[in-house]
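Researcher: Structure prediction, please.
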Amino acid sequence: MNKISSLLSILFIALAPHIQARDYNVDDFGAKPDGKTINTRTLQRAIDHVSENGGGRLVFQVGNYVTGSIYLKSNVTLHLEPGATLLGSTNPLDYMIDPKVKWSAMIFAINQENIGITGQGTINGRGFTTANNLVSLIHRGVFEDELLLDRPREWRRPENIYFRECVNVTVTGITLRDPASWNQTYDQCKNVYVDGIRVDSKAYWNNDGIDIVDCDGVIIKNSYFDAADDVICFKSHDANSICQNVVVENCVGRSSANGIKFGTVSRGGFRNFTIKNVTIFDTFRSAITFAAVDGGLVENIVVDSIRSINTGNVIFLRIGERWSQGKKPSMKNIRISNVYAEVPPTKPDAGYNYEGPVEDNPRNISPAILFGLPDYKIEEVVLKNIEIVYPGGGNPLYAYRGTSQAELDSIPDMRARYPEFSQWKELPAWGFYVRHIDGLVLDNVRLVAEKKDYRPAIVIDNVDGATFRDVEFIEPDSEKKEQIIQNRSKNVTMQ
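Model: Predicted structure follows.
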């Protein structure tokens, strides 16, 4: 049995008793689906009753149920029938900042088990209005906030869902839209099953599609995400925890930031991931970002069958030292295969209300980047069956980075920077830039530049052990061009 099947089986077994519970109609508790009545107390009373009486499904019928912060309890599933909407209040005073997680949300669950949100209905945070009402309250002195760029901090703006330290979580079928902050967070949970959801998350800043923090046993499958920040974002906030045993399968994502991302925070790390059959499109930053910059680890990662269309960068692997606090970061055993990607010549996220920033310094189109540190090298990376189509056209008069040893040695490691592929501005390759790696295999890799570029296709720097097998370069007027440049590297094999 493969890893995906095994994890699915475990989760189905864990969740089975919860699925067979009794149904309760939320209207019988006095909830008003009129789009005006604040139902917070009524919904909480209904949830408490169902949990105290053995659990079951709390069923929402057609209508708009307005609510502030509510807490989901053990053995309770919120079931949203088609046409049912949980509508977030637009009054920021209707939301709590939970004292344990120190975050705001519409639906909380803290230390609960056998919980879920299912059905074909919608959770709509109405985040644009709520966030702007919060800004107004801050300006009036009701709340204190740093108001960076007139944007309240993420923790103060309500998410749609925040589950913390919960066991056996099911979220299926629903539509999640328009939070004021991140959309949904599963933090230190165990056995999380997300299937067939649709996320429309572009109402305000920091609208991540889904955030998985230090969880153990997660499946995200058959889902669509359109997010004004990272699509599927894995985080590790606790240096003594780890995000592990995760499957992402058959998902589609659009983003004004990254597609699949590890390591916005990476204090503990990420281990045993399978990411399969994912499409990323119209995305500003990277289709795939794996970062270990806060002392954590990234290991045993399998990525298979990725399609990246109109994406600013395809693959970004990064070790750094930002918030390491003495811990040694590491990244090893990464396998990425069966990738087709097209990188555009223009900004790929145009049209978002909250699009990625316009850069203030010029650069030509960036390559895929694998960048460790001299004392913490990335280890054992296999890239197999990869085709990336670049626009080419890199112009040395626009931005320039040469390939002499002195020029390559001048590229800074940027240990403490936030991990984004554009942080170096110009890099000296148009296809792949690889630095501080032990053990690299490029097998059946095809790199296409639609226009002639002044740079070579690949630069490797301080690489020990590299195998290039069936690597092909397509670039106009480049028959005599040296496409692979080596600096400070050894044990390099061309096959």
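Model: Helices lie at 3-19, 40-52, 127-139, 405-409.
Researcher: Thanks, that helps.
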